[in-house]
Amino acid sequence: MSAGEKVITNPVKANAGWKELPIGGIIPQGGTARGFFTGGWRSLTPVWDAEKCISCLQCWIFCPDMAIQVEGGKMVGIDLDYCKGCGICAAACPPRTAAIKMVNEGA
Amino acid sequence: MAVKQKTVAESHAITGNEAVAYAMRQINPDVVAAYPITPATEIVQIFSNYHADGLVDTEMVLVESEHSAMSATIGASAAGSRAMTATSSQGLLLMHEMLYVASGTRTPIVMPVVNRAVSAPLNIHCDHSDTMGSRDSGWIQLYGENAQEGYDNLIQSIRIAEHPDVMLPVMTMTDGFITSHGMENVFLLEDEEVQAFIGGFKAAYPLLDTDNPVTFGPVDFTDYYFEHRRQVFEAMVNAKQVILDVAKEYERLTGRSYGFFETYRLDDAEMAIVVLSSAAGTTRFVVDQLRKQGMKVGMLKLRVFRPFPATELVEALKHVGAIAIMDRADSLSGEGGPVGAELRAAFYNEEKRPKAVNYIYGLGGRDVTIHHIESVYKDLANILETGVVGPTVRHLGVRE
Ligand code: SF4
Ligand code: SF4
């Protein structure tokens, strides 16, 4: 995904007052999570080894955000803007493959 | 428009629950998700018979708890359907978390509630502790005196809830057993009249419209949460005019008039009782008896507790010398019940205001008799005579 696609036109004006906001916290547009970068929450970072990866896509299924990048049915990388560092991908990766390791960024 | 006057012969002898279930059939909601609880069980039980007989188009979801019932109803409403459920007492308490989600998400759900005491000790009979416990949940609350009002309030609620200026859930109450299982004459509308009155429901952002995707229930932190809660405040204020407008239109259809409250012989009254639901019937009888003895007594029966019609209540009661505010629920603040607290607060800035006492009565279905009500008016007469208010919170009909 190119950087441009991450800029979404938010239907809700920034700092809108209560009279302007759609009621009930409803966001009348789909896919707005693209504009919300959970990467800032991360303390552990997944490091992916393309050589070991068998593209089983278990990580793509289980990733709670949209960090796992897939093209043409193949795992191609991790977009850290959406990676909160939960480690689920590493746990979901088949043990004999073990293509993702979590590393401590601060270390 | 001429009101079609119905004769008693055209009325139907049915119970409160039957009247409410009948209204639900005529409303024909898209989804009903429910879990049984006494004394509201019959509503959904009767409705499920209608469903089994093919008399409604409703999708029925028989869930495993009231928390799930409310959750499923919210989901169905967000999806864009007209969704209903029904409950009582512990069931309403189990829904409590989801009640706030329903109002905060602005899903116009309508739910009949049959008032019942809450545990412990275990009790299945009437008091208002269940719905009074939901008074800050952002639901509109309409209290009905009898089966007719339970029926009429439910039909009007659909219009109130779904009004674009409101978009809030509504609960309509009847008293457990006293009304829910008591048989009365009830005037019923024709199915087509109900359908024409309520009209269709068109959600602004139906979740199932995949061509126009929307997000429901996102996180809403320090930056927007306050604004969204401010909107709910506004919707509750807006509901006042909508409730009156819908009542006017309903009166044109039925000849039965509704407002925030009903006053009975109040205009020249020196003493008045403020009461909700079925005990109003007993009070009205006592007012007539005491009037014959020359006592200037009256009654105000509150129908709409949320939104709280403070200004209108002050206007209606400010000329009265002494009022007794009846609460069939105790806030357990040590200072009385919810109606007592809010009505007295409404008078705070008024120069001219009645002396006021708050009575807790009828807890756990304890009978409130004409003798009890007479004693309250006698207490008020004593307050007027001596000018001494005495204890501001009193318990009516409890053994010492
Ligand atoms: S660490 Fe968690 S958020 Fe990051 S890619 Fe893996 S599963 Fe997704
Ligand atoms: S789970 Fe592991 S092997 Fe499967 S696609 Fe993801 S990184 Fe590759």
What do you see in this structure?
Chain A has 2 helices and 4 strands, in the order βαββαβ. The radius of gyration of chain A is 17 Å and the shape is elongated. The model of chain A has no long low-confidence stretch (mean pLDDT 90). In chain A, a hairpin with a 2-residue loop joins β2 and β3. The relative contact order of chain A is 0.22. Chain A has a domain of 67 residues: Alpha-Beta Plaits (2-Layer Sandwich), CATH 3.30.70. In chain A, the strands form 2 sheets. A two-stranded antiparallel sheet of chain A has the order 1-4. With 107 residues, chain A is mainly β. The two termini of chain A are 29 Å apart. With 400 residues, chain B is an alpha/beta fold. Chain B has 2 domains: 211 residues, Rossmann fold (3-Layer(aba) Sandwich), CATH 3.40.50; 136 residues, Rossmann fold (3-Layer(aba) Sandwich). Helices cover 40% and strands 18% of the residues of chain B. In chain B, the strands form 4 sheets. A 6-stranded mixed β-sheet of chain B has the order 9-11-10-13-14-15, sandwiched between helices. In chain B, strands 5-7-6-12 form a 4-stranded mixed β-sheet. A 3-stranded parallel β-sheet of chain B has the order 3-2-4. Chain B starts with 11 loop residues before the first strand and ends with a strand. The relative contact order of chain B is 0.11. The mean pLDDT of chain B is 96. At the A-B interface, loops of A face α8 of B. The structure holds iron/sulfur cluster (2 copies). The site of one iron/sulfur cluster (SF4) has 14 residues of chain A, from α1.
